[in-house]
Write a structure and sequence with these properties.
Length: 356
């Protein structure tokens, strides 16, 4: 399949990514790919998991442990600035979810194919001419790390690649599905964290300035920093949309803020299936990858209701916590799908350009 997958990737680059880059910034209006060769080394699938519980009978859900180490040749140019750059190798490792839906009674039996990563994959890109690219106006604030983050997040849920296999499938519903629920995260406090700050050239060990980074898919929240405290109390609340379960997880990392490089204070990963099952979890969790430390979380699973019958009850229940969330807690969800536009007026600037 690899040669045909490469054909699809080239089509994706030229028909989707290239126009998106051109439209993102006026300085990139002459951006184009001059060569796209993904290489002969195919993608490796190191493991497959198929879900059989809590799954709609008209879909098949697969999680693929993928690994790709390829010598690519992808060249691009921005003619306006005589800029040329490219990629000569790519590595990507992570869990890709593949959803086959809807299942239908005619060939090819599957209406469409959706691909995305449940969490940010490990991505490494070996660039050529990156310095030239970052000299282009509008891009000079970027860096290699920022570009990798942008690409990685584009691959992560709720972003997805959807390929229709039959013409009558409702592609919009597959590309922009209604969330399965909302996760309300009460980021409360921690205890017995490691002291990372040192004095007198490391002889005296002090405290830490801890903060947390919370991730659900590509939704990222960062808590405030608590200065010089190994038992910090944040008492903050965040809300994240959950588009896929089973398989999606809440990821939390704690760090000690430093002037140069922030020190790692521990991590935590919680399967959202457990939260959905319990509806409410209020527990102390032991931090992973460190010798000590605990984190106190209160996690609520909120189900979307099709009517506003319970709105008054919901508004009453969130008033107690309303001051904790930066933007206030939500009582309802508005989903807006912008499909297309027609007969738009031609701008006067464009008309002047055409006439000149």
């Amino acid at each position: 399949m690899w040669p045909f997958i490469c054909q699809f990737i080239e089509k994706l680059f030229r028909e989707t990514i290239e126009p998106a880059v051109r439209g993102a910034n006026n300085h990139l209006s002459t951006f184009s790919f001059t060569k796209i060769d993904i290489g002969h080394q195919p993608l490796r699938i190191n493991g497959v998991k198929v879900y059989t519980e809590n799954v709609d009978k008209r879909q098949i859900i697969l999680d693929l442990q993928i690994s790709f180490v390829g010598n690519c040749e992808i060249d691009l140019e921005i003619k306006r600035y005589f800029c040329r750059a490219g990629v000569k190798s790519i590595q990507i490792h992570g869990t890709m979810r593949v959803i086959l839906e809807p299942l239908i009674g005619d060939m090819p039996l599957i209406g469409a194919l959706s691909l995305f990563f449940l969490r940010k994959p490990l991505l490494e890109i070996n660039w050529t001419g990156l310095t030239n690219l970052l000299d282009v106006p509008g891009l000079n604030g970027l860096s290699d790390t920022i570009i990798l983050d942008i690409i990685s997040n584009y691959l992560v849920l709720p972003n997805r690649i959807t390929v229709p296999l039959v013409s009558e499938v409702q592609i919009a519903q597959l590309r922009f599905p209604i969330p399965k629920g909302v996760l309300r995260i009460h980021f409360i406090e921690a205890q017995d964290l490691e002291g990372k700050d040192t004095y007198l050239k490391g002889i005296v060990k002090g405290k830490s300035d801890p903060y947390g980074i919370i991730r659900v898919g590509n939704q990222i929240f960062q808590s405030k920093v608590i200065k010089e405290n190994l038992n910090p109390k944040w008492n903050e609340v965040y809300e994240a949309l959950v588009y896929e379960h089973p398989g999606q997880e809440l990821e939390i990392e704690l760090f000690d803020e430093d002037p140069d490089k922030d020190d790692f204070l521990g991590s935590l990963m919680i399967d959202l299936i457990e939260v959905e099952k319990e509806r409410l979890l209020d527990e102390w969790f032991t931090l992973d990858e460190v010798s000590k430390g605990k984190l106190h979380l209160r996690l609520e699973w909120l189900t979307l209701m099709p009517t506003a019958d319970n709105l008054d009850k919901v508004l009453t229940s969130i008033r107690a916590d309303k001051d904790q969330a930066n933007d206030g807690l939500s009582s309802a969800l508005l989903i807006l799908y912008l499909d297309s536009a027609r007969n738009l007026p031609v701008s006067s600037v464009l008309m002047d350009t055409l006439l000149s």
